[in-house]
Design brief:
Blueprint (H helix, E strand, L loop, with lengths): L4 E5 H16 L4 E5 L7 H9 L4 E4 L2 H9 L6 E3 L8 H7 L2 E4 L2 H14 L3 E8 L7 E2 H13 L3 E8 L11 H18 L5 E5 L4 H5 L9 E4 L1 H5 L17 E14 L26 E7 L11 E2 L5 E5 L4 E4 L10 E6 L1 H9 L4 E5 L4
Parallel strand pairs: 1-17, 2-3, 2-10, 3-4, 4-5, 5-6, 6-7, 6-8, 8-9, 9-10
Antiparallel strand pairs: 1-11, 11-12, 11-16, 12-15, 13-16, 14-15
The chain binds pyridoxal-5'-phosphate.
The site of pyridoxal-5'-phosphate (PLP) has 15 residues, from strand 10 and helix 9.
Length: 360
């Protein structure tokens, strides 16, 4: 089998999806599966749908189009605000999009009218993480505009925390979202189908007994794919954290001095090469050079095999301290992945994907 490759265990992914759909279903919370870290891998998406995931979230319209073309039939939610230059494609292929800009809503409405369809709108609210979203004070006006525009269906409101500044979903900001949903419903005498509380960063708050209030929808990627929550990186009880792993191959294995010699200047990837942290006590250590690099993966997001240490990385090489393991040229090493490492590995044309069907 060729390396580097991502080994994707479909049964483990299916298990993660089943557990989360069931767990949140008991709380009246629907789950949209966010496949963007896999670039909308159709096999993974089909596995999720088979496990009860009722809609798919994607950040890019290109991916939604590809999923539709590959026969995925569940509704698709564009989770990044539509580009003004892509509204035609958004209306044609996404059932719903997340929005925060009146000018885009107007363009979506015009386009939906021209295409003779209705387009669902989830209005995103800024609750402190300072990425996308309408300020709470402006929400009512934007909702009013959405309701007045033709061919748009106001699906509800949502928020996204954790991704930009690591702001955690908590009792205060989640209650604020519920309060805003109720206020809009009263003000306009309507029912909002969705109150979308957030992403995998919402799991610690809910697991800690947080009151969902009006929240009846989550958009989950990392929890489904890696079995972890992003804020602390902790494993979610009952889920597989090894559903996707990365395999790479050793191309050099030698015992070398533990410190470099010669005059030292900067490197192309300064943060990824923490050579000074190599323990000085070592007279030398066995190092393995692995054929994968910054081009293929975020080295900081790799979990190395038991006993081994990542010593650094550049565009095409990963340097590993073998920690006593007698690694040889040609050996394969298996790494766990963070979200950023997974995203980059999925994006690299040099990393293949290998689907594995476990017998369980
Ligand atoms: C990426 C993203 C998600 C999914 O985030 P995870 O942390 O992977 O669960 C949900 N909503 C929005 C708007 C996103 O951009």
């Amino acid at each position: 089998m060729s390396a580097p490759r991502l080994e994707i265990h479909l049964e483990r992914l299916q298990h993660n999806a089943r557990i989360l759909v069931e767990r949140f279903g008991q709380q009246g919370i629907a789950v949209t599966g966010v496949s963007k870290a896999t670039l909308g891998d159709a096999d993974i998406v089909r596995t999720w749908v088979a496990a009860g995931i009722g809609s798919i979230g994607e950040s890019r319209i290109e991916t939604i189009e590809a999923l539709a073309a590959s026969g995925v039939a569940v509704p698709m939610l564009l989770i990044r605000a539509p580009l003004l230059s892509q509204v035609e494609r958004v209306v044609a292929h996404a059932a719903i999009s997340c929005n925060s800009e009146p000018v885009v809503l107007e363009a979506l409405a015009r386009t939906a009218a021209r295409q003779g369809v209705r387009h669902g709108v989830l209005l995103m609210v800024e609750l402190g993480d300072l990425r996308e979203g309408i300020l709470a004070t402006e929400l009512e006006a934007v909702a009013q505009l959405t309701l007045a525009l033709p061919n748009l269906e106001l699906m509800g409101i949502g928020t996204n925390l954790g991704c930009q500044h690591g702001v955690a979903p908590d009792a205060r900001n989640m209650a604020e979202l519920s309060r805003l949903a109720t206020a809009l419903e009263r003000r306009f005498s309507l029912h909002l189908p969705w109150c979308s509380g957030g992403n995998s960063a919402n799991l610690p708050w809910l697991a800690g007994g947080g009151d969902p209030g009006r929240i009846n929808h989550l958009r989950l990627g990392e929890a489904l794919l890696l079995g972890r929550e992003p804020l602390g990186g902790t494993a979610i009880p009952g889920l597989h954290t090894d559903a996707i792993t990365l395999v790479a191959e050793v191309i050099e294995a030698k015992t070398k001095p533990s410190q470099p010699w010669g005059q030292r200047c900067r490197t192309s990837f300064p943060t990824a090469t923490p050579l000074d942290q190599v323990p000085r006590a070592h007279a030398g250590e066995r190092r393995a050079l692995v054929a994968i690099g910054e081009q293929d993966v975020d080295p900081a997001g790799l979990g190395s095999p038991e006993g081994m240490t990542i010593r650094g990385a550049s565009s095409d090489h990963l340097v590993i301290g073998c920690g006593g393991m007698p690694l040889q040229v040609g050996d394969e090493l298996r790494f766990s992945l963070s979200y950023s490492a997974l995203l980059r590995a999925m994006t690299s044309p040099f990393v293949s994907r290998c689907l594995i069907h476990d017998r369980s």
